[in-house]
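Class prep. Write one:
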Amino acid sequence: MSYMRMPVFCWTALASNLLIIAAFPVLTATFAMLMLDRYLGFHFFTNDGGGNSMLYMNLIWIWGHPEVYILILPCFGVFSEVFATFSGKPLFGYRSMVYATLAICILSFTVWLHHFFTMGAGANVNAVFGIASMLIAIPTGVKIFNWLFTMYGGRVRFTAAMHWALGFVLTFITGGLTGVMLAMPPIDFLVHNSLFLVAHFHHVIIGGVVFGVMAGYTYWFPKAFGFMLDERLGKASFWCWFIGFYLAFMPLYILGFMGATRRMQHYDNPAWQPYFIVAFIGALFILAGIALTVVQLWYSIKTRDQRRDVTGDPWDGRTLEWLTLSPPPHYNFAVLPDVHGEEAYWTRKQTAIKLDRLIEEPDYKPIEMPLNTPVGVICAFFTSVCGFAIIWHIWWLAIAGLIGAFAIFVWYAWQDEYEHIIPVEEVRANARERRRIRMEHLHELSQST
């Protein structure tokens, strides 16, 4: 498959991983310098010792702003899948989506200083980073138009996942526009460290990441667990979140302009009280949305026998994960599918519907799969213990944590067997059952069309 024709979700996941590779070494180096300052008396970040405390802020945000896009880019991929599937159309402007993703990756490393325009770097430096911060809104805006034009002319199905996607568009546009405002140094000087900034951040992170997670959770839940979530409770949860979100954070924009700073225990201006009451009511709506999500999961599990996904394709999906049954076998595909284009499964499915038959049965072979291992989780536990102990100067516990992590790593490295073989009989039996169910499903689709 040509890399240019990968599904957009693959591109966003790839871009997010590239950002991790590029950004996290900066965080590692920053923590190393901080540890040298703390434990060995170095002075990278101490002004009295010849260091510079603002160096720490620069390094943290050189990592921290790409980190924002590490969070949001996979969610952009989720929304791309949701909009295409529930609009019944290929994603509009595929190439522009890919190029916009790559542009975001590059520009995300050029905007970090907008987090502290007020530090005194000077007008020229602020102007450069202000312009870069406004430029990054362009590829993000391209994506918004791609999703809107994907819906245009399609047969839109307003499922719970589509509700989250549409709510994201409205919310993220607000967050993006206020972000462009904050990219202007004069406005940033006015609202720096205020509740305006808190509202903007939550518009972007909740409206983008949380709504994206909920859309993906609803969309791929039947693929992962083999039964559907309750749609009514899912939509009710969305509306509680959506209404509550605007009630909770829109007043904060007003309060930010009125001078309310963040991170305060209480405020002594009675004129601000009505806005905080509205924000509190919004928080209660959001709490109801969280509770409904829990209830939705509980009720869906309780009634899972009536919600079984026997076809593996409950949404009439367009990408290859819907080719397998739900939940998929641990080896995913009995035979690697022949992929042409970014919607290989949709093309294959439409061809099968027209011909009223599946592609001829392939020649199955045994599949080699890696053995499951808990080594990663155990190493993470010991290194977490070590990190906690270093912070509190508990040296014996820090040493014990390092020894534990190293010991489990060495033990795993000396293992001789890392794979197991799935017999061809098991692969063939699972694949034939899948083909039988798939044929019945395709026949139903052809009758309905």
Notes: The chain has a mean pLDDT of 90. The CA atoms of residues 190 and 257 lie 8 Å apart. DSSP finds 14 helices and two strands in the chain. The first strand starts at residue 367 and ends at 370.
